[in-house]
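Hi! If you just cloned this repository, the fastest way to understand the data is to look at a raw example. We've pasted two of them here, unedited. The first protein comes first, obviously.
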Amino acid sequence: MRLVAGLLFTAVLASQTRGADELLKEGLALARAKRFAEAATIFEEGRRGFPDDVRFLLELAGVNYRQNHTARAKSYLRKALRGHPRDNYANEFLGSIYLLDGNLAAALKYWNRIDRPMTGDVRFSPVPALDAVLRERILAVSGGQLLTFARFERTRANLERLRIFSDYRLELTPRADERYDLTIRTAARAAPAGQWWWRLLPFLRGLPYEQVNADFYNLRQNATNLMSLWRWDENKRRIALELSGPLGISTRYRVAADARDERWDLRRTYRPADGGLDGVVMRRLQAAAEVTFAIGDRVQWTPGLAVSRRRFRNGDGSSFFADGWLAEVRNRVDALLIEAPERRVRVEGWTMLRSGRFFTGGWSRLIAPQAGVTGRWFPQATGEKYEVSAQLRAGGVFGRVPLDELFMLGMERDSDLWLRGHTGTRDGRKGNAPLGSRYVLLNTGVDRELLRIPFVRVQAGPFFDLGRTGDPGRRFGSRGLLYDAGLRVRVATVGGLTISAVYGRDLHGGRPAFYTAVSR
C-alpha cells in the first residue's frame, strides 16, 4: 500500500509540474507577441494554481512593467522575494526599477543582497571648494568597492554634517563593464555667482523685520561657518554670533554668543496680575559651546555648556522676573529611527536634557527634558510633487525658572515651537502666545509643488496643529487643548533661502493669524 501511495503522489506531482510548465509556456508566448494583458491572465492563473512557484510572480512583474504598471511590478517582485529573498533576477529587477525612479536608497536595499553594485569612478559635480583631505573624507566608498546601503548613508550623513550644502544628491550611472559611476551633485549655501544684488539677497533677507543676517559659509575652504544676526527692532533688539566647524569628518564644534534686549506684553497670558503685565523688559547675555559626535551612521550625540545672565524690569517680583545667572549642561541625542526607502518614509527622533542651577539670590535647580519625533513621506514613486510631514514634540522645565525659559507656542522668529494659528507677538512684543513650563505640540501638513524652475521652487498646502501648555502654579498655560488649521506657502531659492507665508486660524478661539518668515 505504501508503494502504491508513493507512486500516486509522484504521478500527481508530475502532473502539477507539467501543468505549471504548460501555463508558463503559454504565457511567455503571449508576452513575446506583445499580448500582455492575456499573458498576465495566464500568469495569474498559474500563480493561483501553483502558489509556491515563484516564476509566475516574476513573469507577472515583467508583463506589468512592460505595460508601465510599475507599482504592480514592484508589488509582485516584493512578493517573490518574501519566499526567495536571495533570488538574483528578482533583486536585480526590483533594484533597477527603483534606480530608474531616482530612488537610489531603495535600489541599494535589494541590490546589496546579490553583492551589487560595484562602483567605478566616484566624483563630485561640481567639485566643492573644500580642502582636498576633507573632501575625500566625505566619501565612505571608493572606486572598485561595493556601494552598500551603510556606505551610502554614511556619505549622506557626512554631507549633512558639514552644513555648507543647501542640497545634495547621489546618482549612479551604469557602465559597459557592469560597474556604476557614482556622482555626488551638490549645491553650496554660499552666495551664488551672478548679479551683485543676487549675491546680496541672503544678507538682506531680514530687512522687512528690521534685521540683517551676515552669514559666511566654508571659510578657508574647511567647512567653517560664521553666522550672525543684527536686529534693531525696538521691541526685540538682538545680536547673535555663531561659529562652527569640523573636528574631523565625524565631529563638529559650535560656539555661540547671544545678546537680547526685549519688551514683553503679557496682558493675555499672565494670570496673577489683574489685566496681565505690559512693558516687561528683559535683557539677557548668553554664551554656549557644544560638540557633536557621530555615533555610527544613525546616531549623533551633542554635549554642551551654556552660561547666561538676565535682568528684568517692570515685573511683579515673582521668580519669573528674577535677575540672576544660569549655568547649565546640555545633552542631546539625534537618531534615525525608521528608514523605509522603498516606501519613501523617513522618521527621525531626538531627546535633550538640560540641567543646571539658577543663581538668583538663592540657588534653584534647573531640569528641562524634551523629546521629539519627525516624519516625512513622499507618496509618489518619483519626484517630490507631494510631501506629507508630521512632527510631535513635548517637554518640561522644572525649578524656579525665569520668563524666557518658559515654552511659547506660537509663530515667532526666535522660536521654532510654531502653533500656526497663534502669533507670538502683539504690537511687536513677545508674550502674546500661550506660555508654560510644560508643553506638547503636534504639527502636520501636506505640501504640493506648484512651480519648479531654475533656482526657485514653490510649495503650498494645508496644515493642522495641536498644542497645549501648562504651569503647575497656574500662572501661565493654554486653558486646554488648542487646535489650529490653515495654509502655508514656501518659496525656496538657490543657496537654501526659504520664504514662508502662513495663514492660520485658531479653531478654539476663532482668531486668524498671518505670519511671514525668511530662513536659511
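Ok, and the second one:
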Amino acid sequence: MDLSAEVTSINGIGEKTAETLKKAGIFTVRDLLYFLPRTYENFQNSVKIKDLKPGKISVRGRISDLKTQRTHRRGLYITTGTITDDTGSIRVIWFNQPYRAKQFDEKRDYYFNGSYDFKNGRYQLTSPSATLATDVEVTTDEKGRKSLKKNSFQPIYSQRGSVKSIKFNQFFEALRSDFALIPDLLPGTLEDDSLTVEKPDFVYPGARADALFSSHFPDTTAEIDAARRYLSYEELFELLLAANLSKQENSKLKAEILPFKAENTKKLISSLPFKLTNAQRQATWDILKDMEKPTPMNRLLQGDVGSGKTVVAAIAAFQAVCSGFQVAILAPTSILATQHYEGLKPLLEPLGVKMALMIGSTRDKANIKKQLKSGKIDIIIGTHAIITDDTDFHALALCIIDEQHRFGVGQRQKLLLKTARNIKKTNPEFTYAPHLLSMTATPIPRSLQLTVFGDLDVSIINELPKGRQPIETKILKSIEQKERLYPKISAEIAASHQVYWICHNIEDNPMMETTSVKKQAKKLQGIFPQQKIEFLHGRMKPAEKDEIMERFAAGKIDILVSTTVVEVGVNVPNASVIVIMDAESYGLAQLHQLRGRVGRGNAKSYCYLISNSEDQPTKRLIEMEKSTDGFHLAEVDLKIRGPGEIYGALQHGALDLRIATLTDTPLISLASRQAKAVAKEFTEHPESMLKYKELMSGISHYQQLTTLN
C-alpha cells in the first residue's frame, strides 16, 4: 500500500470530497488511516430501561413526544423526547440539534448511545447518537447464513465539513482488503534490521497493520485497547526520537564561550532592590554554566506567574554583554516587549549596557538597525520587528525568547540564522549558533517536558518572591454577582485599585451560552456609572490595543472588560481583582494564567470564577479555588483535558498527539528509553536510517532543529 498516495486513489473519494478532507488536514492515504474513531458504539451491550445505571449507556427503544423549544435567555434550541421499551421510559434531550425532532419514525426501533445522568432534578439521556435498529441487527441471507449489518463495535468518526461519520466508514470499507499491505514503521520490525536495540513485545512485524485494522474494524474492547497501545507508543516514539536527534544535532554546533565572571554577576545582583530566591539562584547557575560551554545552550526556563524569570534572563544577558557580545530578547507582543525594556533598562544601563527597543511603532528603526550592525547596541528587545531580513547583528551570541510557544519554529529559526552571518567566528569551519534561552509562564507537566520539550534542558523557578500575597479565589454562581461581587468591586475601586473583567467572546452569539465583551461592558457601565470602563479584544488594531493597555496601566481605566488577549505578559500591579465569566469554559492552565494578571503588587488580590451552570462546580474550578500552584494545576489539567487541548497551540515542533496520552508515564518511560537507544544507533550507524525512510520523514514535523546547515 502506498501511504503517500493522495486520498483520491481510494474508491468513493472524488475531487470535491478530497478538497473537504484537505481542509481537515487529510491529504494522503496515511492521513486517512490515522484518522481514528472518536468513539465506538457497542450495540451488543444495550440494556433494558429498567436496568439502566448512570454513565455511558446503550439502549434500544422507540422515541415519541418529540418537540423543540428555543430558550429566551440564550437562544438555545432544546429538543426533548421520550424513549420507551417494554420495561419503561426515559427522557432524552439534545442541545442545538433541532433537526432531531424530524429525524425519527416513531414506529421504528433505534439504538441510542450516550450519557445517562441526573441533571436538573431528573435522570435523562443527554445528546445521544441514534442508529436505526434494522441497520445493526443480525440478518439471514438466502443460504441461511447470519451476519451483523454493522460490526458489534461501530466506529464513530468526527465529522469533517460535509463528510459525516458514515462516509468515513465507507472509505475504510473500500480499503479493508489492503490493510495487510501497510508497511511497518518502527525499528525492529524489518526482516533485514541491523539495529541491536530491544523493542517492546507489542512491536513486531505487522504490528502497525494489525493496530490500524483493529482500530477501524474491532471485534472486542481488548482489540481496541491493544491497537491504542501500539499506536500510542508509535506516536510517542516518533516524538521522542525527534527530540533525541535534535539534541544530537545541537551538540554538533559551536557557540561562543561566554565565561562566568563572578565580579560582574555580583555587581548586578547587589544592585537589585530585592534578594533572589533559591530557585532563581539555581536557574541562574544552570544558565551561566551552559553559556560557558562551546556548544549552544538550548534551555527552557519555566516559572510560574510572577516568579521572577526576567531577572534571571537579565543576569544571563549581562554575562554575554560583559564578554563582548550582543543579546536579542524576543517577545510576542509590543506590550510585553515594552515592559521588558522598561524593567531591564534601570537594572542594566547604570552598568554601562546599551539597550534599545524595536517594536512595530518604533520610529527610528533604520538608526537602531545601523547601531545593531555596528555593535553600538548591546541588547535589543522587541517583537518580530527584530527578525526582519534587513536586521543584522554585529556579534549576536545569546537569544532570549519569552513565551516561546507564541512564536512559530520558522520565526525562531530566523533569529538563530542571523548568528551565522554576523557572529565573531574564531574557526570558520564550524557552524555557529547563539545560545538559546526560552522562557514560559505556562507550567509544563513533567511528561510534556520529556516529550514535546525533550530536546531542551529545563530549569524551573517554583518559588514566588517574598512579600507576594496569595490570590484569594472564589467560585460564584452567576446569580450571586449582585449580592457578593458588586460590593467587592466598589470597595476595591474606592481603594484606588483596578479590575479585570474577562469574557469569552466579543459579540453576542445566540448559539453560545457565554458572555460577550461588548454587552458586559455596557452592563457594567450601568451598574458602576461613576467608573471609567472600557473593553479590549483581539480584533482591535494593535495600536488601539496598546493604547488601551497603556491607559489601564497608568490607572486611567477602573474596569477593563476583555477577552483572554490579556492572558500573558500584562503587568499592572495596581489591579487587585479579576472576574472570569463562564469560567467552566476555560482549561485550568488558561484560568491560572488569567489569575496571574492580579497579585502583582503589594495589595491583597482576588479572583472570582463566575459559573453559569446550574450544576455543581466542575473539578477544574474546585482545583482552581483550592490551589495557586501552577505546576500542580498543570498536572491536573493534563489529566482532565489531555495534551491536545492544553498544548495544541504550542509551536515547539508540532504537538499533534491524537492517540497517545501524556498521563501514561510507563509508556512514555518505555518509549523514551527506546528512542534514546535508537538515536544512538542511528548516530553510530547512519546507514541504518536509510531503511526507515518513512519514520525519518514522519518525525520531521516534530523537530525544531537549531542546526544552521
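That's it. A detail worth noticing about the second one: The first strand starts at residue 39 and ends at 42.
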